[in-house]
Design a protein that fits this description.
The protein is mostly beta strands. It is built from four helices and 52 strands. It has a six-stranded antiparallel beta sheet with strand order 1-11-10-7-3-4. The protein has a five-stranded antiparallel beta sheet with strand order 5-6-2-8-9, with no helix packed on it. Strands 20-22-27-24-25 form a five-stranded mixed beta sheet, with no helix packed on it. A hairpin with a 2-residue loop joins strand 10 and strand 11 (148-158).
């Protein structure tokens, strides 16, 4: 079972699912009505049919159904069924919402959402612990991500009931005008609960494909709640803390002892890591380890023989049980558990220390000078790690800055704070000195269209003409054309998609942004040096009317009908990579034309054109790679025969009667059947044939030789 907290997400199987909105059966508590809203890319429903609830229990597509209420011994559950493969492509999100007509959600005990796969596996469980005066609630949402589906725990409430919630998502409610809906209610933080018992074991019956409501399980196991400061996710934002924030504060926990002992932090701790501080007198061996669920040793916190040791370490407490640590030491010891705000600060002055420690840096991008005395010439091991705030929930996600034995004198780069510098090994004296680099403000691009920076940075680019696409001229001087250079698109959930990489597009060139006309786009730049992203009007892309030649990554406009295109690399580098893509506004999607895969042989590919839109041809190549494009008629594609061999990328036509096609390849191969606009609408693979085709244009994409066999 996957327990998730508010704001978290988890993958779900792309298949039939059943969703239960559960509550404890307590007399006199409000009734809960559950509904589902199917939203398009704009975040709105397309019409009233996209609201599924008890009076409209099935969506026209059959993808979402309201099954009714299940009544268990001490639980009630209202069920929805989602058949994810049947969700229409235009639908990007399915919200699970609920309303209380005779009360508020703060009075609903044990409110939870649970998602069950077709085999009975519970794939997501979300307990709502912060409801207050809301009468409508979005508990969670299923959304598309890279061809798969994910679930996110939303936990956002309204005081205006289901009518207000539905209106906000584009449904016109046929009743008296609804007052202006207030913003989502900021829920009241729950009181700190006592340490919960371990959840009991519970099994679900396999989900049957019937229309009858599913019985509620006899008991739904509670998830130990961790008090936190809730946030209202009404405005999309990146999943990073507020500026200069390091984590939630809590009262320090102190425990002392002599000899071997166990430290148990029974008070609730907020999400994220904590600082564990150890102090001893003497020079005996100190070993502190966390304990796992079975009360066995798990991770080492301290392991030192340093005399009169006083050090700090970063520890991630478990979310479902108290933090427990075993102490091995012969003398007196003191262990403290502290919030991140207790970390020593690295400012503009040199910071000195001895042994392991946790240091906070809140400044701008800097070079940090590191000095280590080697442990009084004992040749001690020194390790310095950098933990950025956005990855505090995963301590394994860090950058190792130093990893040396003996005396050390180095300078290492760090990005903008807030961040934590953690000395994990270093039984000796050390010094850290931060020298901030000159600050470049990427926000200046809001006025000039040129966004500049240095190093890793997240910046929001503003469309100079919302509703239309724009060109982006990028330049990373001095960067290497490899995977260490990249710019990633960041969506409203904080999920990232690849956009520009040095290996595919080089260190300078041109690309298309805002292909769907959106007003702004957040991007995350990963680059060790200076960089520039300059927005230009789409008219600066040359118009492609015939053969065209160029160098590096570029963009051309195409205004003709769907066509074929010959793509050829004309430079002589052995490993130069060149690919071409067609991208259409306002549809916003791209499709492959051709990929040379490092070969100089001309490659024929299709140019997809969306009727009534604007088509761009984007070329992806390193800045020194030369290329040639030339439009070609559909007749340039060879006609499919009984046995048609080929290699790598290519286009073939079938002009005869309906027949069976068998795809044979010695390497990875996919064949796409194209529609009348030359968009790939059906994928044929070697493993799933034979395929019935008639009057088709086929786009073959392979990593080697292939053969297409036609059978009457």
């Amino acid at each position: 079972m996957t327990h998730i907290v508010k704001g978290a997400n988890t993958p779900v199987p792309t298949g039939p699912l059943r969703v239960a909105v559960c509550r404890r059966k307590v007399p006199g508590t409000p009734a809960v009505d559950v509904s589902a809203l199917l939203l398009d890319a704009t975040g709105k429903v397309r019409g009233d049919a996209d609201l599924v609830f008890h009076n409209q229990p099935a969506h026209p597509s059959g993808a979402v159904r309201h099954l009714g209420t299940g009544d268990g011994v001490d639980q009630l559950a209202e069920w929805l069924e989602l058949d994810l493969p049947r969700v229409e492509p235009v639908v990007q999100r399915v919200l699970v919402a609920a309303s209380c007509d005779d009360g508020t959600f703060g009075a609903v005990p044990g409110l939870a959402l649970q998602t069950v796969a077709a085999d009975g596996t519970i794939v997501a469980h979300y307990d709502v612990t912060d409801a207050a005066g809301e009468t409508a609630f979005v508990l969670g949402e299923f959304y598309r991500r890279n061809g798969a589906w994910k679930f996110r725990a939303v936990g956002q409430g309204w005081e205006s009931g289901l009518a207000g919630l539905a209106t906000d998502f584009g449904i016109v409610v046929a009743q008296d005008p609804v007052p202006v809906m207030p913003g989502p209610v900021a829920p009241v933080a729950p009181a700190a609960p006592a340490a919960p018992a371990a959840p009991p074991t519970m099994a679900y019956a396999a989900v049957s494909k019937t229309d009858a409501p599913m019985a509620v399980p006899a008991h739904i196991p509670p998830v130990p709640s961790i008090p936190s400061t809730p946030t209202v996710p009404s405005t999309p934002s990146l999943p990073v803390p507020a500026p200069q924030a390091l984590g939630a504060d809590f009262p320090p926990h102190t425990q002392s002892g002599r000899g071997n002992g166990v430290v148990s932090v029974d008070v609730p701790l907020p999400p994220g890591p904590v600082i564990v501080e150890a102090q001893i007198r003497g020079d005996d061996w100190l070993l502190v380890e966390t304990l796992n669920r079975r009360n066995k040793d798990e991770d080492t916190v301290f392991n030192t023989t340093l005399r009169d040791f006083h050090g700090r370490a970063l520890v991630q407490p478990p979310r479902d049980r108290p933090l427990r640590m075993k102490v091995n030491y012969d003398g007196d010891w003191t262990i403290r558990v502290l919030p991140l705000s207790a970390a020593r600060e690295l400012g503009t002055q040199t910071l000195k220390g001895r042994g392991v420690d946790v240091i906070a840096y809140r400044g701008t991008m800097a070079d940090v000078k590191v000095r280590f005395d080697g442990g009084a010439d004992r040749g001690e091991w020194f390790v310095l790690n950098c933990h950025e705030a956005e990855h505090f929930d995963d301590l394994d996600e860090h950058e190792m800055l130093c990893n040396e034995i003996g005396k050390l004198k180095q300078t290492v780069p760090v990005p903008d704070g807030p961040l934590l510098l953690v000395i994990e090994h270093g039984d000796g004296n050390w010094e850290l000195t931060a020298k901030p680099l000159p600050v470049r403000d990427p926000s200046a691009g809001r006025q000039t269209g040129a966004y500049q920076g240095r190093g890793d940075k997240t910046v929001t680019l503003l469309n100079p003409r919302p509703g239309r696409p724009a060109l982006v001229e990028y330049d990373f001087p001095g960067a290497k054309a490899d995977y260490s250079l990249e710019v990633r698109i960041v969506d409203e959930y904080g999920d990232e998609d690849e956009w520009l990489t040095g290996r595919q597009r080089g260190t300078r060139g041109m690309a298309v942004l805002f292909a769907d006309g959106r007003a702004e786009q957040t991007v995350r730049v990963k680059c060790a040096g200076d960089w520039t992203l300059r927005l230009l009007p789409e008219e600066q892309a040359p118009l492609l009317t015939g053969p065209a030649e160029g160098r590096g990554s570029s963009v051309l406009r195409y205004q003709g009908p769907p066509t074929l295109m010959t793509v050829q690399r004309t430079s002589r580098g052995d490993d130069e990579h060149l690919s071409a893509w067609s991208l259409n506004h306002p549809y916003g999607r791209s499709a492959t034309i051709a990929d040379t895969l490092g070969r100089r042989r001309p490659t024929l590919g299709p140019v997809w054109v969306d009727p009534g839109g604007t088509c761009f041809i984007t070329v992806r190549a390193a800045e020194d790679t030369k290329w040639r494009l030339e439009p070609a008629p559909l007749s340039a594609a060879p006609v499919l025969g009984a046995r048609t061999p080929g290699g790598w990328y290519g286009v073939v036509r079938h002009t005869g009667p309906e027949a069976e096609l068998v795809v044979v390849g010695t390497a990875m191969i996919h064949v796409f059947e194209l529609d009348e606009n030359l968009f790939p609408h059906r994928k044929l693979t070697a493993s799933s044939g034979p395929h019935r085709i008639s009057g088709s244009i086929l786009h073959v994409r392979s990593l080697g030789e292939w053969t297409l066999e036609l059978r009457p």
